[in-house]
TrEMBL record:
Domain of life: Bacteria
MF annotations from Gene Ontology: ATP binding; enzyme regulator activity
Identification of the protein by name: Nitrogen regulatory protein PII
Any one of the GO CC terms: cytosol
Any one of the GO BP annotations: regulation of nitrogen utilization
UniProt cross-references to InterPro entries, sorted A to Z: N-reg_PII (IPR002187), N-reg_PII-like_a/b (IPR011322), N-reg_PII/ATP_PRibTrfase_C (IPR015867), N-reg_PII_CS (IPR017918)
Assigned protein family: Belongs to the P(II) protein family.
Biological classification of the source: Bacteria, Thermotogati, Deinococcota, Deinococci, Deinococcales
């Protein structure tokens, strides 16, 4: 299991959401963040110059996935978030020790598998 954190441009959020959904990723957390990715602006003054470290609005996606979904998720995010310009974002992958689904007590891969629709009681109206 891995925890994937992806930082992307806000204008690509919709595309990333759709790509993840189509790739079968069913659990994701999204946060607006402020990030710095190395870009600097040099402001000239009459007595020298000043370097401004810029923080830009970005969006962070976090998702815990089982091993077969790691590369699938990374490729989906890359395809959806890529413009080719600096500042497209980054993807971080961390090993995940444990996952627990609170409702059922299921753990790890079981806790990451979406609840099977057929297990649900049909609602009679
Ligand atoms: N090393 C890092 N650690 C934590 N967050 C980072 C790191 N690098 C980038 N980020 C986050 O990702 C956002 C986008 O980074 P950015 O796309 O500029 O990465 P980059 O490696 O500089 O790539 P590029 O060359 O395309 O600019 C940043 O605003 C920041 O939130
Ligand atoms: Mg950068």
């Amino acid at each position: 299991m891995k925890l994937i954190t992806a930082i992307v441009r806000p204008e690509r959020v919709q595309q990333v959401k759709e790509a993840l959904f189509q790739a079968g990723i069913s659990g994701v957390t999204l946060t607006r963040v402020s990030g710095h990715g190395g870009e600097q602006e040099i402001i000239e003054h009459y007595r020298g110059s000043r370097v401004v470290i810029e923080f830009r609005e970005k969006v962070e996606f976090k998702m815990a996935v089982s091993e077969p979904f790691v590369d699938v998720a990374i490729e989906a995010i890359r395809r959806a978030a890529h413009t080719g310009e600096v500042g497209d974002g980054k993807i971080f992958v961390q090993t995940l020790d444990r996952v627990v689904r609170i409702r059922t007590g299921e753990q790890d891969d079981e806790a990451l598998t979406p609840v099977n629709e057929t297990k649900r009681q049909p609602v009679l109206k």
